[in-house]
Protein: DNA polymerase-3 subunit delta
Organism: Novosphingobium chloroacetimidivorans
Amino acid sequence: MSAQAFIGQEAAWREWMDAVASERMHHGWLLAGAKGLGKGKFALAAAAELVREQGAALPDPATHPDIHVLTHLPANDDEAKKKAEGKPYQTKRNITVDQIRGMIRRLSTKPTMGSRRAVVIDPADDMEKGAVNALLKVLEEPPAGTYFLLVTHQPGRLLPTIRSRCRVLRFASLSAKDLDAVIRRDVPDADAALRDAAIGAAHGSPGVALSFAEHGLTEVHALMRNILANGDPEFRLRGALAEALGARPPRDRQFAILELARAALAAELPQAPSARQAALIEAHVSLTRLAAQAPTYNFDAGLLILEIGGLLASAAMPRDAARPN
């Protein structure tokens, strides 16, 4: 795999590959950056390059016995069945201590197929307290040939003792040119107008840009910007937002709209007067919490969009500031 596979993150990929080729590679890595920058896919590809034996084909990270991926498990047996059937499913809120302990038990033996193995935790931000403490112990004394890739959207949520034992690989927001290249590659049917709208809405996030293009969220984004500019005292715009979402939207469309709302708030923040910034930050924090809960709880779509609209309205520009002189 080449650096070009990670548009906008070529420097991070080169840094990783240089480390893999070195004789003194660090055992712990933080893949740090905002949500939606492709850190999870990067971690899997990086793990595959790490365990690949010289001259061998690039392995599949989903099936290789020396790549261990820890992420949110299905919420219960019924949700596990949905996952097995390839259907959308709800997840547990955290990566549990039992998952970390199970991984540590597997590390008691040597790698199966070579000299290296990778442990990917995605996202490390969501480990419960016991899981963090268990991970810290193995980070302090890692088994030979074992390397940890911790995907983190908010490094500050991790213990300083974990951060201090890891090398940070930073992921930057993408330029408009790079976002356009990502959309052209992954959503080739998107026309120029849709690409431009997606780039404008994404605030540097390829994840947001792709979901915008895939779900055609131009109308939804326009309504969000209208709410942020003018408020919605009569609930008219929130009604239009619910109509644009649709009566029975798939979960991936709901998630896309949540991330788009977060990006819309983030885009407002740099130019906002200090008196408004607190409201924007508070609404963004609430949306982040809602986005974290969405895979876990089966929200009613209508209530979800009203909640999103309400948070946007709470951060709207003050009405006297919104009126022209």
